[in-house]
Amino acid sequence: MLDRRSLQQSGLENRSKCTRMVVDSAEYNPPAGHSSPLNRQYLLSIRGNSDTGPPGRIPIGNSKEKMLVGFRMWCASLAFVVSCLSAPVFGASIDWQKITRLQDSAFLDYVVSLNLKGQEAIDFWKKIPLSKANRQVNRLFRREAFGIFMNKYPRARKQDSDQGFQVGKGTVIKGPIDGQILKLPFSSYYPLAEGTVGDPKKTYRVGYSIHGLSHPWLKSNAESAMWEVGRHSNVELVVVDGEFDTDKQVGQIEQWIREEMDGLLVWPMQEAPLGPPIVQSTRAGIPVVTVDRMAGTRRVSTQVTGNFPANGAQQGVYLIHRLLQETGEVAGNVLMIRKPLGSTADSMRTGHFLKVISYFPGIQILESQHNSSNREASRIQVLDALGRFQDIDVVFCTGAEQAMGAVAAIDEARRWNSRQGGRSVIVLSNDDLYESLEAMQQDKIAVIAPYTPLLGGLGLRILLKVLMGEEVPRNVTTPDLPMITKEKQTIFGIQTMGIDEWLPYAYGKKQPGLAQ
Questions:
Q1: Nearest one of 257, 293, 304 to 278, comparing CA atoms
Q2: 251 contacts: CB under 8 Å, gap ≥ 6
Q3: Chain segment 134-174, per-residue pLDDT in tens
Q4: Helix, strand, or coil here: 453?
Q5: CB 277 within 8 A of CB 300
Q6: Is 400 within 8 Å of 431 (Cβ atoms)?
Q7: Are 69 and 56 spatial neighbours (Cβ–Cβ below 8 Å)?
Q8: Labelling 90: which of 20, 23, 315, 367 has CA 20 to 30 A away?
Q9: Spatial CB neighbours of 137, under 8 Å, sequence gap ≥ 6
């Protein structure tokens, strides 16, 4: 277990300023180890302190607190399996009940016989029920109640799915914070004409609480919202940093209620604690739109969500494919480095990954650890695990910062070719960080399941439509994005993208061109 002293020595534990940004003036210099300074023209004031605390480790099968909720977990898992078994048939006729009785090669033979391709294939892997073949994986899934998250996670509406995604689509912008060139893949979704909105004589004041602006993914999300607000002269956007502190986010929303803001965007750190203040906001007549993650209430006007289910399923599918290529069997030891426990991103990605690998008894989870999407925390956790486990085949990461921390740790330990037969450690990543594409080119990240950060502009357009009295759906879900591999390949009927194809959409860019 990592103690506070080791974190202080590593520079991980620090107190960082909370920023409050509007399109105005001032300057912010983040603490050492955080992202580059925000441009002075977008910062209004600095206030507050917080301590993110140490990252946590969750040993497999050794959590008394989780075991106490066993019955609830069982009910959630049962409901999830029932929903999978009753899922509508698509493509070939799929015998879902038969699938639950299969494992290993018999399961794969059946999958191949279905001859699914493209989106049908992705949908299949997202919808498969949890298997009992791998008892350890099955227990972890049920203990952490992933079925509850999956049952309530929005399913894409047909109108959204029909829009699809085509490589090359999107609007190129210059990020308002640090001038980075960004390509917004969903700028045509729920479009809003440039110019004033609603009552042209009124200035609409909107607050956006983001749970951690020191993270490059979250910063790019803020940039997409700031770009959108720049298209509408009678809208003022205030962006505040929750500093990975749920209590701070609660306080931000409560303050905006007192200030009688016109509308709120919220990107929750964790779901449940954000429910009560959002209820207070809606009761005060202030509509709320959540972006990326959900909140612990149904009182939001709209939930804007992305392709979390596909992310986890894609990581699992790639891992099966990779292990089969290497040895002809699906077996190996997996270290899990995850986002905060209880967050939507962690639960959906991890849950869908576990569903896929639950059909293979030869996979063992060595350990599952969490941190606040922090690269240095991830490096320390992976380095510690490398010192305790001699055989680590796979590092599963629920975010790009976790993956880059894992890469740094394996570099430091000189353990890249430490698997049996001298094979390379397999790092599975999410998100489309520019550095992770560089690492993939260097054969240090095996697969990236992209999830664009550029959803803030979409969330703002939805909120402005609500304020204008337009009818908008309660759930807006972006389409699944193809996974990225170093070279294009087809994996169980799913076509991957090469690095160069996705490069224009990557966030956190540095200089043009990848490392050679």
A1: 257
A2: none
A3: 999 999 999 999 998 898 888 766 555 555 677 778 899 98
A4: coil
A5: no
A6: yes
A7: no
A8: 315
A9: 354, 357, 358, 363, 365
